[in-house]
Write a structure and sequence with these properties.
heterodimer; A: Rossmann fold; OB fold (Dihydrolipoamide Acetyltransferase, E2P); five-stranded antiparallel sheet; elongated; B: mainly alpha; MetI-like fold; Iron(III) transport system permease protein (chain B); transport (chain B)
């Protein structure tokens, strides 16, 4: 049986017009699993998290954990947060400024009436887990952002809750620190196997931390799967866009000629021939440029002209014009670098990609499953 | 353990908890509703009694048009003075050089000085005959022929000026708060775009703080309309009447007392007050929006100079120091004449004062009733602001509470005072003639202050600290006791001391509900004033000032420098 079970959760916010924050959402989370809710702002991920915490009350649906009902609109059950045995890490850390780190971390134990030697030892252990054992007698104001977030993590872990919720906990940290804390969190989960729901809008965070990623859109799960599944096989164009396949090319097949953004292309595409109109999605990193089509063997190619190029260290960002459209390609700095560097705006070149690296979507956004052998461009 | 909790959360159990919360909230609001609405109810019932004949009698009186015109002059004139002075002071405060930053708090001082003391001080300085300043002015060659004047503090223009100067502090508070919330980059970008200092002030800063300006103006207008102390003490000599003094005279200047007349005369003020409260509520929504959030505030690009400091210093001198000096001289003199005899100065007046048991009693009554009222108001303010800010599942109750809390601020104290008198001199709560009536009145008029101050503290606290506590397993009680209260300690302490200050210089409402045996500092001061024994009046006013300043110092000590701005 699943650990956390959510069925038909629904939540609307009043307003003109009312907005649906959570739309008939159902999902399960196994014990010890780390699930990330990923989506842009306003997709309902934080509201979902707050409903799990009991900080927000859904209009309908049920939430149960380990067979115990947390929320059931039909039975009018809504346990307050303090009855749910959870931990939560806030974006703003929410460490109480009038308490020392020790008292902050110990608070969940005191609130749950755990006292004495054991409680003190648990606090020490939790602090040690996040490497804060030498900060215990300081006040939050004396800590850096990264330290505060680690204390906040310790506070959420200390009472060994059934579920830990993370509300964009890394977004207030600078880039370098974010990766450190992220790696620490990953390691901590590997060791402790707590059940976690983590909300973020950062895809790299989601891919790094999650055992399963749920990409949310308008209060629903657009796709839920392992990071690998979501990364390699985005179920819809929306997911593809959000997960980094930012290049969008409209493809048409007429009279045996396939056009990308209105320009005739040469090679194979990952869509069966019966599809006359569809959309291709690619990552800029998977695009290459060459002087002519034969210079890019095994690739599907289309003629383009250079607009601009930007040096980025290990890569070079090349912007090309394809028909009326601007396309971004990120070229690794390797043996073609000399040639790329010599390019000028207006130069005519060829843009290419391996057909297995791009994804095709029908006009309704659903993924098109490619044939076993990728179909040639001509019929 | 998990199983047992499931059984405790059966549907009915949950339902009861929610209903229980609602019942508790209603049980909290009902007594407040009685405190606020019963006086207004009895007041209107009295005014409408006998076929509403009191309206016809009072508003048909030959002196009434002049009274209304004087009232309008008082309200509009003092508003204009306060708006200009207050805005200029606030702007000056932002231009202070760093080492003079402390001066930002000075324009608030007149609020600490009891208004009665301020007015008495001005009488001692500018009374046409023995006023000290007038005596000095008469030494000037072009006024040397005068026997009285040149300034007549008892005339309408000077009533307007003194009211305006005292209202300036309120406007200053609102406008400064507005300045605090302006992002400095907005100002800097206007300068970079080529605007001069004046241009930035007129085209960027004033439009941005328009909401605060309007709100400050509305508050100042209400206070000006309901202003009682200044016209009562200054207007009677030359027969300058305004609505508020007419209300008082209908009760205490006629035989027999005419409460119907008082209620009828008060009706326009009541209507305006209630209308302003309701308009504010429905146009601008929840009052939590008006809680200002502490920001970094903006630093003007202009070079700081000493000129603003001089301006602020002059304001402090004229509004606070000068009247205090007048008070001190008279309090130390055996009698009040236009010349000061240094050798005759002594503390005799204070000895006389402390030998009078009823004077000493009044001082003690003031202090302990104020203290008790503060103790009652603090938990009320805490609960009320919690409900207003957080009880999102009870919108109707919150709306009602919001209006109830605002009414004692919107309806002038003198009008409320008549209502109090009518309410507590009848069953079921016949409190007239006891100290309890003062206590109940003080609690009622402090409702807006205690709630607003708690709200600004709670709003600044944000939700995350509370939510963190709840998810850590703490219930609402523990969250409030261990998280909210300790974090609000500064605001609560500041609120307590400030309410104590406001109550010890309460004058208007006390004057209406007191009786011979029930006196506070303000009422005993008024009696001594009408009996004409000025040195004793000055001594009482000084004692009142000292008590108030002690309270204010405590407020600053406990709540920090920002406390006064929470008002």
């Amino acid at each position: 049986m699943s650990h956390l079970l959510v069925t038909n959760l629904h939540k609307q916010f009043a307003g003109k017009p009312p907005t649906t924050a959570i739309d008939q959402l159902s999902f399960e989370i196994e014990e010890g699993e780390f699930v990330v809710l990923l989506g842009p702002s306003g997709c309902g991920k934080t509201t979902t998290l707050r409903c799990l915490a009991g900080l927000e009350k859904a209009d309908a649906g049920t939430i149960t954990l380990g067979g115990r009902t947390w929320f059931d609109s039909a039975r009018r059950v809504a346990l307050p947060p303090e009855k749910r045995n959870i931990g939560m890490v806030f974006q703003s850390y929410a460490l109480w400024p009038h308490m020392t780190v020790r008292r902050n971390i110990g608070y969940p134990l005191r609130a749950r009436r755990k006292k004495g030697q054991d409680a003190a030892r648990w606090v020490e252990e939790a602090a040690a887990l996040v490497g804060c054992q030498n900060l215990l007698d300081r006040y939050p104001a004396q800590l850096s952002g990264g330290q505060q977030q680690r204390v906040s993590l310790a506070r959420s872990l200390v009472s060994r809750p059934d579920l830990i919720l993370f509300d964009e906990p890394l977004s207030n940290l600078d880039a370098k620190l974010r990766e450190d804390v992220r790696a620490q969190l990953h390691e901590l989960h590997r060791r402790l196997r707590f059940t976690a729901v983590f909300v973020t809008h950062d895809q790299s965070e989601a891919l790094a931390l999650a055992e399963r990623v749920a990409v949310m859109r308008e209060g629903r799960f657009e796709q839920i799967g392992t990071p690998h599944e979501v990364f390699e096989h985005p179920a819809t164009e929306y997911v593809a866009d959000f997960i980094g396949l930012s290049v969008r090319l409209e493809a048409t097949r007429t009279d045996g000629i396939t056009r990308l953004a209105g320009v005739a292309a040469d090679g194979r595409l990952p869509a069966p021939v019966r599809h006359g109109e569809f959309v291709l999605r690619a990552r800029p990193d998977d695009l290459r440029i060459g002087p002519t089509a034969p210079a890019l063997p095994t690739m599907t190619t289309v003629p383009v002209s250079i607009v601009d190029k930007v040096f980025g260290g290990r890569t070079i960002d090349v912007y090309v014009r394809l028909g009326e459209q601007r396309v971004h390609a990120r070229i690794p700095v390797d043996d073609t670098y000399g040639w790329v560097r010599g390019l000028r705006a207006g130069d005519e070149v060829v843009l290419g990609f391996r057909p297995e690296n791009v994804r095709a979507y029908a006009s309704d956004g659903a993924a098109i499953v490619p044939d076993e052998a990728l179909s040639p461009l001509g019929s | 353990m998990a199983v047992s909790t499931v059984t405790s959360s059966t549907p009915t159990g949950r339902l009861l908890t929610f209903t229980g919360r609602r019942i508790a909230a209603v049980a909290f609001v009902l007594p407040l509703a009685y405190l606020v609405l019963a006086p207004i109810f009895w007041l209107q019932l009295e005014a409408l009694g006998d076929g509403a004949s009191a309206y016809e009698a009072e508003f048909g009186r030959a002196t009434m048009p002049e009274t209304l015109i004087s009232t309008a002059w008082l309200a509009c004139g003092s508003l204009a003075i306060a708006m200009v002075l207050g805005t200029l002071l606030a702007w000056s405060a932002t231009l202070l050089p760093p080492r003079l930053r402390f001066m930002r708090i000075l324009p608030i001082f007149p609020m600490i000085l009891p208004l009665v003391s301020q007015v008495l001080g001005w009488i001692f300085l500018l009374s046409p005959g023995p006023g000290y300043l007038n005596a000095v002015l008469r030494r000037l060659p072009w006024w040397s022929g005068l026997t009285g004047g040149p300034v007549d503090v008892y005339s309408l223009p000077w009533i307007v000026i003194i009211t305006g100067v005292s209202l300036t502090s309120f406007v200053y508070l609102f406008v400064s708060a507005g300045f605090q919330n302006i992002n400095s980059e907005l100002i800097e970008s206007a300068h970079v775009s080529g605007s001069s200092g004046i241009g930035v002030f007129l085209r960027v800063i004033l439009p941005i703080i328009r909401p605060q300006l309007l709100y400050g103006a509305a508050v100042a207008l209400l206070i000006g309309l309901g202003q009682f102390t200044v016209p009562l003490l200054l207007g009677r000599t030359n027969g300058v009447r305004v609505i508020t003094t007419e209300i008082f005279m209908a009760l205490y200047g006629r035989q027999p007392q005419d409460p119907a007349a008082a209620a009828a005369i008060g009706s326009p003020l009541l209507v305006v007050g209630v209308a302003v409260v309701l308009i504010q509520r429905f146009l601008l929504g929840n009052s939590s929006r008006f809680v200002t959030h502490g920001g970094k505030g903006f630093r003007p690009v202009r070079r700081s100079s000493v000129l603003p400091a001089v301006f602020i210093g002059t304001y402090l001198l004229l509004s606070t120091v000068a009247p205090l000096v007048g008070l001190v001289i008279v309090a130390l003199s055996p009698y009040w004449t236009s010349t000061v005899v240094p050798d005759a100065l002594s503390l005799d007046n204070f000895r006389t004062l402390f030998a009078e048991p009823n004077l000493v009693d009044a001082i003690w009554t003031s202090i302990w009733v104020s203290f008790l009222a503060v103790c009652i108001c603090l938990p009320i303010g805490f609960v009320a602001s919690s409900l207003l800010l957080r009880a999102k599942d009870m919108p109707v109750l919150r709306g009602v509470l919001d209006v109830l809390i605002a009414l004692p601020l919107g309806v002038p104290a003198v009008v409320f005072g008549v209502g109090f008198l009518l309410t507590y001199s009848r069953e079921p709560f016949f409190l007239y003639g006891t100290n309890w009536v003062i206590l109940v009145v003080y609690v009622t008029i402090m409702l807006p202050f205690t709630t607003r101050m708690h709200m600004s503290g709670m709003a600044a606290l944000g939700d995350a600290y509370l939510e963190a506590s709840r998810v850590c397993g703490a219930g609402p009680l523990r969250t409030n006791l261990q998280i909210v209260l300790p974090l609000l300690r500064g605001s609560v302490g500041g609120a307590a001391a400030l309410m104590f200050v406001l109550l010890t210089h309460e004058f208007t409402a006390s004057l209406l509900v007191r009786s011979t045996d029930v006196q506070v500092m303000g009422t005993i001061l008024y009696d001594t004033f009408t009996n004409g024994y000025y040195p004793l009046v000055a001594s009482i006013a000084l004692i009142m000032t000292v008590v108030t300043f002690a309270g204010a110092a405590l407020a600053l000590l406990v709540g920090g420098a920002g406390t006064l701005e929470d008002l």
